[in-house]
Amino acid sequence: MTKIVDMTSVAEGDTSTLDTTGIASSEKPFDIKSVGNPEEPSKFEVTDTKTNKVYTVNASALAGGDYHQIIKASDGTIPEEDIKRYYDIAMKMDWQDGWYSTPEMKKEAKTPGYKHIHLGGSDTEEVDYEIEQDWVKEIWEQINPGTKLLRHYLNGHYKGQSGGIHIDGWTGDQYTVIIYLTPDWRPEDGGTIEFWTPNLNDEMKAMAINTPYGLNGNPNMNIVKSYWPKAGRVVVFDARIPHVARSVESDKFRVSLVFKCRKRLIKGVVAQLVRVPACHAGCRGFESLRSRHI
Fold first, then answer.
1. Which terminus, N or C, of the chain has the lesser number of Cβ atoms within 10 Å?
2. What's the domain range around 131?
3. SS3 track for 229-259
4. What does the DSSP 8-state code read for residue 109?
């Protein structure tokens, strides 16, 4: 069982929760101190005790304990006939070529860029907006896990077009929801999505100190989960988890509708997603949203 480090106690000098992880406090893998108001710190400085390198991490990035397995897939939420209709609509839209998961991957261009359609929202600032596409509204009403929508778009991959391993967010309140729209997809068609341990670079490790893979934690890099893009499959995951869409291996075109979202904070109530992102009433296949007063 994964042990969760009590970050508040550690920041105040109580390292007893480090002992429960199997690491003696005298051999702790990192030092941590709050930046700014100690009662409500906005950031933490995390120091690698082996290299003395210091990483500044947003307090929100350390929220929620061990997040590396907050991944959930559900089938059957959207009827097959609707999936076919949505796919036909998407295929008639104006797709843009040459897209990559990150600017660095675009610069390196190790694989051909994939296709993309921006549908709404922003990836640089949080804005309030409404979904303009009626068919996308239909989907969102069925799969919304009780969150605020930040951005949504379509990705499309042909054979040989692969993404790179990346994360979608650096805070503990962001989630990504993907629904696959290509009808009659088979496992042998490829295009799987892989979720990796959060220890692929030092910045990820500094954010992952509440997981077994943080600074000086488990060094083994491995796939945590993988799903093939079955038509209508909905995948929800914590945005901090490294992931990648692998190359399609057939002549089919893999279409995925992606929603980037944030947990809602209701006045007087913290809406908590327990273990996995939750769906609102009427959504099948996910746990319900739980809230508690503060």
1. N
2. 71-192+228-293
3. CCCCCEEEEECCCCEEECCECCCCCEEEEEE
4. -
CATH number of the domain enclosing 237 = 2.60.120.620
What is the pTM (predicted TM-score) of this model?
0.79
* 207 belongs to a structural domain: no
Amino acid at 108: E
- 39 within a domain of the structure (yes/no): no
d(Cα 229, Cα 65) in Å, to the nearest integer?
A: 29
Contact 174, 262 (CB under 8 A): yes
Instruction: Please say whether the beta carbons of 44 and 32 come within 8 A.
Output: yes
What is the end-to-end Cα distance of the chain in Å, rounded?
28
Kindly state the helix (H) or strand (E) to which residue 98 belongs, with its residue range: strand 96-99
Sign of the torsion angle spanned by Cα atoms 281, 131, 134, 80: negative
Structure tokens at 228: 């093939």
CA of residue 269 relative to chain centroid, distance: 23
Q: What is the DSSP-derived secondary structure letter of residue 37?
A: -
d(CA 100, CA 107): 9
Q: Is the pLDDT of residue 246 over 50?
A: yes
Whether 56 and 45 have beta carbons less than 8 Å apart is answered as yes
Tell me which of 35 and 267 has the higher pLDDT: 35
Taking alpha carbons only, the member of 204, 223, 205, 224 closest to residue 214 is: 205
SS3 at position 137: helix
pLDDT tens per residue, range 210-244: 999 999 999 999 999 999 999 999 999 999 999 99
Q: Classify residue 203: in a domain, yes or no.
A: no
Among residues 285, 284, 272, the alpha carbon closest in space to that of 146 is found at 272
Is 87 part of a structural domain of the chain? yes
Q: Are 253 and 182 in contact (CB under 8 A)?
A: yes
Q: Are strands 43-48 and 30-35 parallel, antiparallel or unpaired?
A: antiparallel
Q: What is the pLDDT of residues 117-168, one digit of tens each?
A: 999 999 888 899 999 999 999 999 999 888 999 999 999 999 988 778 999 9
Domain count, the chain: 1
